[in-house]
Amino acid sequence: IRNIKVISNYISLLFVSGWISRSDSQTVEVQPGKNATLLCSNFSSFPTHTIWFRLVNQTSPICISSIYNFAQPSVLCNGVEHEKVELTSNISTIFLKIKQVDLSDSGLYFCGYYTNGHPVIVNSTYLKVQGGADETTNLTSLILTAVTVVLTKVIICLVIKMRLQTGTVQELVHLCNSKT
User: Where is the Immunoglobulin domain (predicted)?
Assistant: First the structure.
């Protein structure tokens, strides 16, 4: 746990200093409800405690899960649900599988390890859950459609009102002419 806090503080420093940025990372796009698998290369030839983090509010890295080597099971960090995340590994890659993603899962994920007293960032991946822009577009279309319907009704009502008023005036003129 102490090592995770040290890595978390170090990563915060790297983000603040600009050494890690979203533009330098890979991007994985996935549909809501699908699974997303993020990859981290295993650069070490010996067992290493590898940790996956997620950046929250662009300043706070939160531990998701960690694994010591591919032969051992992973350990979830506090607050992470087993049904949501699965961490597996082989000799060359550590896989973070996020199950049934939703828009709240979008964000920057990165993995790293702690060796010889120093944290090392291996990989960063931006997870983009599709649908955020589509929902905004759908909402805009819905609003524009509603406004169009309302304005069309207003125009029709005004046209009918004008015709009724014109018809009433013509009837009055006709009545006046017939009385004289």
Answer: 25-130
Alpha carbon distance 11, 79 (integer Å):
20
Where among 103, 130, 157 does a domain terminate?
A: 130
Q: Whole-angstrom Cα distance, residue 71 to residue 11? A: 27
Q: For the residues 123-143, what does the mean pLDDT come to?
A: 77
d(CA 27, CA 142): 30
Domain span including residue 24:
2-130
Look at residue 33 in the predicted model and tell me its pLDDT.
92
pTM over 0.70: no
* pLDDT of the residue at 18: 41
Q: What CATH number is attached to the domain comprising 122?
A: 2.60.40.10
Contact at 8 Å (CB) between 38 and 127?
yes
Q: Which of 95, 111, 130 is the last residue of a domain?
A: 130
Contacts of 103 (CB under 8 A, 6+ apart): 32, 129, 131, 132
* Per-residue pLDDT band at 1 (split at 50, 70, 90): low
Q: In whole angstroms, give the CA distance from residue 80 to residue 82.
A: 7
60-79, pLDDT tens digit by residue?
778 888 888 777 788 888 88
Q: Could you give the number of structural domains in the chain?
A: 2
Rounded CA separation 175/72 (Å):
100
